[in-house]
């Protein structure tokens, strides 16, 4: 670097030589920090969504205690009651993940078109796979958060559930 600067600065003009490697390292470091920040926000959002799904499922169990008691008293098995609530959590997860995936595509399209003036990088498989990963993670989180309410519904005593007001 200094040899190049000495060779170039023999004339009237002073030339600064900058290595592109240093510039690229700075850019990659900045993008790494942005990625970490966005991932942290996504993780917090996923935690909040999981707690919300857990709350919704617990409310669903509480509101349907009498219905669960009737189902159990006429012969529904615990695993059937549990699977009913797990399917409900699965539906919540799939719908939420589909909405999130569509919003991610629209947001990525808007950001790419504004910042890069092109959207050709958005529709490549390496970019789209992250949306699929996020959607899958959302579905798994909703199922995990639905396990306890489903277990609680399946283990209700039918007699106590029928007495519940």
Describe this entry's structure for a reader.
This protein has 165 residues and is mainly α. Helix content is 82%, strand content 0%. Helix 4 runs antiparallel to helix 5. It is rod-shaped and about 95 Å long. The N and C termini lie far apart (82 Å). The relative contact order is 0.14.
User: How large is the count of helical segments?
Assistant: 6
First and last CA, distance: 82 Å
Shape: rod-shaped
Count every beta strand, where a strand is a DSSP E run of 2 or more residues: 0
Strand content: under 5%
- Helicity level: over 70%
Radius of gyration: 27 Å
Poorly predicted tracts of residues: none
What is the arithmetic mean of pLDDT? 87
Largest sheet: none
Class per helix and strand makeup = mainly alpha
Strand-and-helix sequence, N→C? HHHHHH
Please describe the structure with a list of short key phrases separated by commas or semicolons:
single chain, 165 residues, mainly alpha, 82% helix
Question: How would the blueprint of this fold be written?
Answer:
Elements: H1 2-8, H2 20-63, H3 65-73, H4 78-116, H5 125-154, H6 158-163
Helix pairs in contact: 2-5, 4-5
What would you say about this model in short?
The protein has helices at 2-8, 20-63, 65-73, 78-116, 125-154, 158-163.
């Amino acid at each position: 670097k200094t040899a190049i600067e000495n060779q170039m600065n023999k004339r009237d003009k002073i030339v600064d030589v900058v290595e592109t490697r240093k510039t690229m390292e700075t850019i990659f470091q900045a993008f790494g920090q942005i990625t970490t920040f966005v991932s942290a926000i996504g993780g917090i959002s996923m935690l909040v969504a999981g707690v919300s799904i857990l709350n919704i499922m617990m409310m669903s169990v509480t509101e349907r205690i009498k219905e669960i008691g009737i189902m159990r008293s006429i012969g529904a098995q615990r695993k059937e009651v549990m699977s009913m609530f797990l399917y409900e959590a699965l539906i919540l997860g799939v719908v939420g993940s589909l909405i999130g995936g569509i919003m991610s595509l629209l947001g990525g399209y808007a950001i790419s078109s504004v910042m890069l003036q092109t959207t050709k990088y958005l529709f490549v498989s390496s970019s789209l796979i992250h949306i699929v990963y996020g959607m899958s993670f959302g579905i798994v989180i909703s199922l995990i958060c639905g396990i306890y309410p489903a277990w609680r519904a399946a283990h209700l005593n039918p007699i106590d559930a029928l007495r519940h007001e």
